[in-house]
Specification:
The protein contains 2 helices and 30 strands. Helix content is about 5%, strand content about 40%. The strands form 7 sheets. The protein has a 5-stranded antiparallel sheet with strand order 1-7-6-5-4, with no helix packed on it. Strands 2-3-30-29-28 form a 5-stranded antiparallel sheet, with no helix packed on it. With about 400 residues, it is an all-beta fold.
Length: about 400
């Protein structure tokens, strides 16, 4: 695989309020993954990303993208692996384990999604029986929903397969689909929580009598003791009603903490609070509009975190619990503008660190969401934008003034 130099350029468009640099070249398309997956390696030296073959259409089953690592100390981008297990919103779910040695991501074998553990020291690749959404912090197991079925509710987050390999749930609550776990030592996959079990704990089930359940998103808390699970009840016309559930890491104590009626009032993007006991989410608990809310993972109690600014984007809280990070996106004509917003939870003040324009594509799976994400220390932020038309990765340092360059590792 090839190696190239990074393209480090200060970003000064639209008057940023802090130091921002582009770290990938403008002539090729790169992306990290989701806003809740740290792309930095545990040492902070490397950053995992995916180089895309195109941006004007969804991937066909055999279209490859290239898993890369950026060496922030040496200033290089190295291609490691060619994968067909990717999408435009979550890439190949590439992520690190507890050290810089192993990189995890998804590919396909025999027409279905599987996880891969790549040893960066030896080059050895271990294929897992099932795909990964997130590796548990202790690096013993990983969890995932079905990346084949889940994309039926929203494209861009799973993998594309041939029509003969498509999977569709035909009963309301399948006993053989749901939240899966894969053992990273043996590679074996097992069903941790079935949709049949999910159905039993959902509130207001009469609303969903004509729908079919699909598991969509899952996430361990930082302590690895609990899991959040987003399940969507899909109707024949394509509409769906989401619910948020939590359980222990072994699948026990399953409960619905945000039912579909509350979610459908206005809600999106749940993520664990650093304390591992609460979930941060954009939600509309009252008549005042969408707010950043905290949901107790055991009781479902909803508390408004901030009256202002309003809830929006892909929010997360820094590891030290001091700051809330999100993106604020708007479209006008052919231009999509995303601002990276930082809220100081100590005094409620906020500022937009920077903003970047990208080509607008509406709600298409091809959209260029910023997906801002913290580094492991909560000091710097990685985000995606396409000010020259192609996806690039940027790093912002809120502590430094605009225009200043800085060492990346």
């Amino acid at each position: 695989m090839s190696e190239a130099r990074m393209s480090i350029e200060p970003y000064t468009e639209l008057d940023p309020s802090c130091a921002v640099v582009a770290i990938t070249p403008p002539g090729q398309a790169y992306m990290h993954t989701y806003y809740d997956v740290c792309p930095w390696s545990p040492s902070g030296r490397y950053l995992a990303c995916l180089r895309l073959p195109f941006e004007d259409r969804e991937p066909a089953p055999d279209d490859p993208a290239w898993l890369c690592i950026i060496d922030l100390a040496e200033g290089t981008i190295r291609e490691l692996w060619e994968t067909t297990g990717w999408g435009f919103q979550t890439a190949a779910h590439q992520q690190w384990g507890r050290s810089d040695r192993y990189l995890y991501f998804n590919d396909k074998r025999d027409g279905r999604a599987v996880g891969v553990r790549l040893d960066l020291e030896s080059g050895e690749a271990k294929f897992l029986e099932g795909p990964i959404w997130q590796v548990r912090p202790d690096e013993k197991v990983a969890i995932c929903t079905c990346l084949n079925r889940g994309r039926l509710t929203q494209r861009g987050y799973g993998v594309t397969v041939r029509p003969a390999d498509e999977l569709t749930n035909t009963v309301r609550a399948a006993a053989d689909d749901g939240l899966f776990q894969v053992d990273l030592h043996t590679g074996r996959q097992s069903l941790l929580v079935s949709l049949e079990e999910v159905w039993e704990v959902l509130p207001d089930k009469d609303d969903l009598a004509d729908a079919v359940l699909y598991a969509f998103h899952c996430k361990y808390n930082p302590q690895g003791t609990r899991i959040l699970l987003v399940v969507r009840a899909r109707f024949a016309d394509g509409r769906y009603c989401p619910s948020l559930l939590t359980c222990r890491a072994d699948g026990s104590e399953l409960r619905a903490v945000v039912g579909h009626r509350l979610w459908m009032r206005g809600g999106h993007h749940p993520i664990w609070h650093p304390d591992g006991r609460r979930v941060l989410m954009n939600l509309t608990p009252g008549d005042e509009g969408m707010r950043f809310c905290l949901i107790d993972a055991e009781t479902g109690q909803v508390d408004v975190l901030l009256d202002e600014p309003p809830g929006t984007g892909h929010p997360s809280i820094s590891p030290d619990e001091r700051f809330l990070l999100t993106d604020v996106t708007g479209e006008e004509g052919s231009v999509r503008t995303a601002a990276i917003r930082l809220v100081d939870l100590a005094d409620g003040s906020w500022r937009d660190l920077c903003a970047a324009r990208s080509p607008a594509v509406g709600g298409s799976p091809l959209r260029r969401d910023a997906h801002p994400v913290w580094d492991r220390l909560g000091r710097r932020i990685c985000f995606l934008a396409a000010p020259q038309g192609r996806r690039r990765l940027f790093i912002a340092d809120p502590a430094l003034p605009a225009g200043e360059t800085f060492a990346l590792a």
